[in-house]
Each structure stands twice: as structure tokens, then as C-alpha cells.
Write a structure and sequence with these properties.
Alpha-D-Glucose-1,6-Bisphosphate, Chain A, domain 4; elongated; alpha+beta; 2,3-Dihydroxybiphenyl 1,2-Dioxygenase, domain 1
Length: about 270
């Protein structure tokens, strides 16, 4: 039966992924949190019972903190071909709630998948247009989320060192860093920094890649002027100094040949 264009919409997208993966994205809470918030909307909570007769509840949070909750019942789940569910927004006044019907069809197109999204039984054209805008953004975001994994941050960054005990002493005595973990057999140490990041020194214990000096880490300091004065008093030369519109930084050499940058932003929320 054709969809009533006044109270329903049909959107189509083709993704460079097998339909098993596209289907799975719609039945995984972790995957749904990645793509189901259009634009700057986040999805802090997804609860689903992905079976025919099961229910779901999705919390979306707007940039201003307002939360919107969508919920419904799965009327049909047929992996990896089709999902049909009711869809309604929780309202302060239950009389304003309107149950609509969402159908997702996953069509194999060679090694790709065509997704057909049909959403119908809206109250009026305005409600339909609002949902069309949201679903369009969501389907655009879905493509990126179909990768097998997503980078969520940096767990550890660090330098290779030739002599781990010597390097640990340098970072302790010059920079005031105490290791959270020290590894035996010259394998190095890790440092848990106040901002939640972790810095590492990798000695390798004879089993790592050949040593290669690096220069890519910038340590944030609260007072760069005081840091430079202390380095001068200790006779530690500053190799280079930089000033940009957003920051100041200075580089010193560690005992292993790595360049260590001390960095101070002019404005805390400005990246340089």
C-alpha cells in the first residue's frame, strides 16, 4: 500500500556495507547511540528488547539539555531484512502523544545495502516534515557509524626511550612527574596525568622496535614563565620557543633525544 504523502514519508539510502551490518546497527544500543542523534543531539541512553513484541526506549538530549524520549513496540523483526515498530514521543500531557509506525527495509544491492525508511501515520504535515528533517540527518550519520569500530579518544601517548630508569629520573626531577606504573626489564613507565590522560615511556626491554626520537607531545603547564625560569635555574637549555595567537610553548630535550614541549594556551577553550 502506498504511503500517504500528507502524513507519511519514505527515505532511501544506499550504504557500502553488507545488510547484516546495517541491520545490526539498528538492534545494538551502542551503535544506536552513535548515529541516532541528529546534528548536535546526543543519545545518552538506549534500552531495547530487539524481538517481535519487545519494547524500546531512546533518550535524546539537545544541546540546551532538554531531553526527548521516544519509545515503542517492535511489531516485526526479521533479520536481516525488516524491522517494523511503533514510534511515539513521551509528552508531559499524554493526550498529546501520537503513535506512528516506522518500517525499516534492508535490501541487498550486491555488496551494498539499500535502506528504505518509511514513517507514517503522523498527525499532520508539520509533524511529518519535522521527522523528515531529523531522519535525513540520522541516515547521513549512519554511514560513518557502519565502520567496524570508532575512535573515541587517545588512551595513551608517549615516547620511546633507550634507558628507562634514566628517562624516569629525568621526567621526575625536571618535570615533577611521578610514574603510576613502572615496568621491569627496562620496559618503561606510565603516568596518569591530572586531566585524565596517560603518558608513557617505552623502553621495550630489548623486544620493541628500534629506538626513534619523537617530538609530538605537548605537556600543558599552568605557568609557562615560571617553568622557563626554573629550567634556566637548573641549567636545562630551551631548544625552541614558539608564540602563536592562541598559545606559547617551549621545547627541551630529554635524556633520550626526544623533544618535550611545555605548552600554555592563551584561552583555555582555544585549541592550537
Amino acid at each position: 500500500m502506498p504511503t500517504d504523502t500528507a502524513t507519511g514519508l519514505v527515505l532511501r539510502r544506499t550504504y557500502d556495507a553488507p545488510r547484516e551490518r546495517v541491520f545490526a546497527a539498528w538492534t545494538s544500543p551502542q551503535a544506536l547511540r552513535r548515529f541516532l542523534g541528529p546534528g548536535d543531539v546526543t543519545v545518552p541512553d538506549v534500552q531495547i528488547d530487539a524481538r517481535t513484541g519487545g519494547t524500546y526506549r531512546i533518550v535524546m538530549r539537545k544541546a540546551d539539555g532538554e531531553e526527548l524520549v521516544a519509545s515503542g513496540v517492535y511489531r516485526e523483526i526479521r533479520p536481516p531484512e525488516r524491522i517494523v515498530c511503533t514510534w511515539s514521543w513521551e509528552e508531559d500531557d499524554p493526550a498529546l502523544e501520537k503513535e506512528t509506525l516506522l518500517t525499516l527495509e534492508f535490501i541487498e544491492r550486491g555488496e551494498k545495502t539499500e535502506l528504505v525508511l518509511t514513517h507514517e501515520a503522523f498527525r499532520d504535515a508539520t509533524q511529518r516534515d519535522n521527522h523528515e528533517h531529523g531522519w535525513t540527518a540520522i541516515l547521513d550519520q549512519l554511514g560513518a557509524s557502519l565502520r567496524g569500530f570508532a575512535i573515541t579518544g587517545i588512551d595513551l601517548s608517549g615516547y620511546m626511550v633507550k634507558d628507562a630508569p634514566r628517562a624516569i629520573a629525568f621526567y621526575r626531577d625536571v618535570l615533577g612527574l611521578e610514574p603510576a606504573r613502572v615496568y621491569p626489564e627496562n620496559r618503561g613507565a606510565e603516568y596518569d596525568l591530572p586531566d585524565g590522560t596517560t603518558f608513557g615511556l617505552w623502553g621495550g626491554g630489548g623486544n620493541a622496535m628500534p629506538f626513534q626520537a619523537s617530538n609530538g607531545i605537548l605537556f600543558a603547564v599552568d605557568d609557562l614563565g615560571a617553568a622557563l625560569a626554573e629550567l634556566e635555574a637548573r641549567g636545562i637549555p630551551v631548544v625552541r620557543e614558539f608564540t602563536t595567537p592562541n598559545c606559547r610553548m617551549a621545547a627541551i630535550g630529554d635524556t633520550e633525544g626526544n623533544l618535550v614541549f611545555l605548552h600554555k594556551r592563551n584561552v583555555e577553550d582555544t585549541k592550537s
